[in-house]
Amino acid sequence: MSDYLPHEIIIEILTKLPVKSILRCILVCKAWHSLITSPNFIVTHLNRTILNSKIDHPTLFIRHYDKNDHNEHYTLHREDETFGVSFSELEFPFKSPIGYFRIVGGCNGLICLSDDLFGDMETIILWNPSIRKSVTLPKPSKPKSPHMFVLGFGVDPMTQDFKVVRIVYYKGFFNGYEAPPDVEIYTLSTGSWRSINSAAPSYCMVEFMWSQALVNGVVHWIANNRRFEFRFRSLIVSFDLGEEVFDEIVLPDALAGEIATNLSISVFRESLAVIEYDKEIGTMSCCVWVMKEYGVAESWTRLFNIDLEGTLEKIIGFRKNGEVLLSPRSCKLVAYDPKTGLIKDLEILGNTRSFHVDTYMETLVLLQEIVPQMGN
Q: Which PROSITE patterns is this protein grouped with (predicted)?
């Protein structure tokens, strides 16, 4: 085909194919192998996939841990009328020595896994399920004393390079943590960690309970500001993956006065969201807030309350249609409609902390590292 069609037309055709078909095309000839595994082709295919995901029905992946077979399961669900009825399952090739992995986040086809959920193993993996390829990150600098750390994952919007940021706090007096912390960044293109000199935050993230929200190329976490009039005050810490600088986002007074462990950060329809629980353990109800205009504190809006009469455990994520995916105390995943109050059982069982929901797309990221054996 390459003898009869212009190079640009071949690229146009191949980038429209699904990932599985593209992987078969790699073996057609050396020229196609070189083309498909080139960084330019992978980025072109990725950009087309991102554009199509905004037009077509997106896909969510749901992770849960099955205590019967002691394995993590990742199922794919289309954001359409088949959600909760029809799904497919990804092959998960890893086994955490401590149960199941913490999912730091998902971005452009990569899922960042860390085995620190119940310990301090510090093995971090970037996994692309579409091409069954992964990269285990080199060990970061070994902390010099008792510590806790927080991770963030996403893509630099300027260079399209994937980055993992690691923020390490050391034990201080009265079982607290000292600030500012040490900060390191892993960049996929270089395959190595480096320390950064930008001003690290002088406030502390929530130990063990931390999670991230990626919006506009910026990673966000819930944190405590202990400098505020000698009292704890909650806020959002952000890290720009392009500029590699920290910033903070002020929460409305109703949230800032809450204990940070009662707050959880998320993404609702591409906007930054904060979930306010009435208490960390034995939750009765929660409230969902959204920052409608990014970076504008006055745009924080209380969307709705959820009260399941003492059966609510945790909000796991949100669907495009506004449904809330949550875990009640029956250790299962359900879809809750905040407009009608109706609940749909998704028939997915698991430990509440093992549930994770994120967007999913098939991409070729990491493919350039695959070098199959080929003939002439």
A: FBOX
57-to-18, 60, 221, 270, 344 alpha-carbon distances in Å? 15, 10, 28, 15, 20
Distance CA 223, CA 201 (A): 10
Token pair, residue 106, equals 């998902």
Taking residue 295's Cβ as centre, other Cβ atoms within 10 Å add up to: 13
Q: C-alpha angle with apex 207: 206 to 209, nearest 5 degrees?
A: 75
- pLDDT tens digits, one per residue of 9-59: 888 888 888 999 999 988 888 888 888 999 889 999 999 998 887 777 789
Residues ≥6 apart with Cβ < 8 Å to 188: 126, 135, 161, 162, 163
pLDDT for 50-71, tens place per residue? 888 777 778 999 999 988 888 9
* 345: enclosing H helix or E strand: strand 343-349
Does residue 201 contact residue 237 with C-beta atoms inside 8 Å?
Answer: yes
Q: Are 203 and 235 in contact (CB under 8 A)?
A: yes
Q: Is 367 helix (H, G, I), strand (E, B) or coil?
A: helix
